[in-house]
């Protein structure tokens, strides 16, 4: 489809420099700490950058310990294993800590939230989202406990930087004696009722992946208030050596520690967290303003209780303004008519103008790999089958790069608006 010569776009020219969804933003201080690590020869998984970043991240989130790990996914794996061993004990080698167990998990999220449940041999049961924050629906969670009263672990995420209804989720978890692993990979710096996301889980995690709000190029953190848990995770992440003259092993080990080089990049980035959030907030605000007379709404958050970090700005097209469209497993078709559009068209138009958007996370229960897992929705017989599939069908993530200028964003807005003409 050629959107460049489409008369609806009135001779708009493509961007010379690509507008990214969300790309790394280096400030220069990163170089200093990386150089320092190299100059002093501390380039391995021990060093000053690691010590400093762990303390600073724990301080910002308000937890006693932050463990610097190789990625958010590694942090989720160890967080899930830690909770599983608390609940079910240490498994024999070769058997996952969740073998034969069910775990409640966010349905609409990145697969990395959920996959580590399976690394440990567990079976996820997916919990639908609600429309107010797009995160795990407490009503669906409550219903899931009725169906599976023995479940003792919940893995939930805060999508796109908007905090979930974590107070309600916590109450339900406590009532059923369940632990929570909180995936705050996308929401570093966001808060709920004044407390940072990452402070609500029994164990929580953050990510320093390249497209997150701040980045170490990679990296992640496991957050806990327990000294014992912190030292266990530190040990597991460095191959589980016992205190012995030789390599002695009593527990399963992993090579999951962060390097002092990555920690140096993160150390340089951390002072810019608030600045990045403010830039992303402005981007969200400008989209909201620039698209307000279109039949769309922005990704929602609880304005009374929460402060998002606005990591990605996404929009949801009103049902009546959706063009006719079908999605297969790997491709999609649409027919654009006046006054309507759809995620496929908007992403294709953005792409032809050299700008990057992204579909909403495709719900886990719709993924071929998870097709046989159970999925719990709050209320049957709604107009839509379930919230996750509906938001996936009608939603789209817009370019949210904090280096995008106001003028560039105005052009992105014009492109989106033209799709509805
Ligand atoms: C990015 C992300 C992760 C994984 O983090 P990595 O550091 O890339 O391993 C996990 N969960 C969610 C919701 C994410 O967006």
TrEMBL record:
<dbReference type="Pfam" id="PF01041">
    <property type="entry name" value="DegT_DnrJ_EryC1"/>
</dbReference>
<comment type="similarity">
    <text>Belongs to the DegT/DnrJ/EryC1 family.</text>
</comment>
<dbReference type="InterPro" id="IPR000653">
    <property type="entry name" value="DegT/StrS_aminotransferase"/>
</dbReference>
<protein>
    <submittedName>
        <fullName>Putative PLP-dependent enzyme possibly involved in cell wall biogenesis</fullName>
    </submittedName>
</protein>
<dbReference type="InterPro" id="IPR015421">
    <property type="entry name" value="PyrdxlP-dep_Trfase_major"/>
</dbReference>
<keyword id="KW-0663">Pyridoxal phosphate</keyword>
<dbReference type="GO" id="GO:0008483">
    <property type="term" value="F:transaminase activity"/>
</dbReference>
<dbReference type="InterPro" id="IPR015422">
    <property type="entry name" value="PyrdxlP-dep_Trfase_small"/>
</dbReference>
<dbReference type="InterPro" id="IPR015424">
    <property type="entry name" value="PyrdxlP-dep_Trfase"/>
</dbReference>
<dbReference type="GO" id="GO:0030170">
    <property type="term" value="F:pyridoxal phosphate binding"/>
</dbReference>
<dbReference type="GO" id="GO:0000271">
    <property type="term" value="P:polysaccharide biosynthetic process"/>
</dbReference>
<feature type="active site" description="Proton acceptor">
    <location>
        <position position="212"/>
    </location>
</feature>
<feature type="modified residue" description="N6-(pyridoxal phosphate)lysine">
    <location>
        <position position="212"/>
    </location>
</feature>
């Amino acid at each position: 489809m050629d959107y460049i010569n489409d008369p609806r776009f009135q001779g708009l020219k493509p961007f010379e420099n690509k507008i990214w969804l969300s790309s790394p933003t280096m400030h220069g201080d990163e170089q200093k700490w990386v150089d320092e690590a190299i100059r002093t020869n501390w380039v391995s998984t021990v060093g000053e950058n690691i010590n400093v970043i762990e303390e600073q991240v724990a301080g910002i989130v308000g937890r006693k310990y932050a463990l610097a790990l190789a990625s958010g996914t590694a942090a989720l794996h160890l967080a899930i294993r830690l909770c599983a061993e608390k609940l079910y004990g240490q498994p024999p080698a070769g058997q996952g800590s969740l073998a034969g167990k069910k775990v409640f998990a966010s349905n609409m999220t990145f697969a990395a939230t959920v996959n580590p449940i399976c690394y440990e041999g567990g079976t996820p049961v997916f919990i639908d989202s609600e429309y107010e924050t797009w995160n795990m629906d407490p009503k669906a969670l409550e219903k899931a406990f009725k169906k599976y009263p023995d479940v003792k672990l919940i893995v939930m995420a805060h999508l796109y930087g908007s905090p979930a209804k974590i107070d309600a989720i916590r109450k339900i978890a406590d009532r059923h004696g369940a632990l929570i692993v909180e995936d705050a990979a996308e929401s570093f710096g966001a808060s709920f009722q004044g407390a940072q996301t990452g402070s609500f889980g029994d164990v929580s995690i953050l990510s320093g992946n390249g497209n997150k709000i701040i980045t170490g190029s990679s990296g992640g953190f496991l957050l806990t208030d327990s000294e014992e848990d912190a030292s266990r995770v530190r040990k597991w992440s460095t191959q589980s050596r016992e205190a012995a003259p030789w390599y002695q092993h009593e527990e399963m080990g992993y090579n999951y520690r962060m390097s002092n080089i990555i920690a140096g990049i993160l150390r340089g980035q951390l002072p810019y967290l608030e600045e990045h959030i403010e830039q992303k907030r402005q981007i969200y605000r400008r989209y909201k303003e620039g698209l307000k007379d279109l039949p769309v709404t922005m990704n929602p958050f609880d304005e009374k209780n929460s402060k998002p970090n606005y990591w990605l700005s996404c929009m949801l097209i009103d049902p009546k303004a959706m063009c006719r469209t079908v999605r297969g497993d790997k491709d999609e078709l649409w027919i654009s008519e006046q006054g309507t559009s759809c995620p496929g068209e908007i992403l294709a138009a953005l792409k032809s103008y050299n700008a990057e958007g992204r579909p909403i996370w495709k719900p886990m229960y719709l993924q071929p790999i998870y097709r046989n897992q159970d999925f719990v929705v709050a209320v049957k017989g709604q107009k839509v089958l379930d919230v996750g599939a509906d938001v996936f069908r009608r939603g789209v993530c817009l370019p949210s790069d904090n280096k995008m200028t106001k003028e560039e964003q105005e052009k992105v807005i014009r492109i989106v608006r033209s799709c509805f003409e």
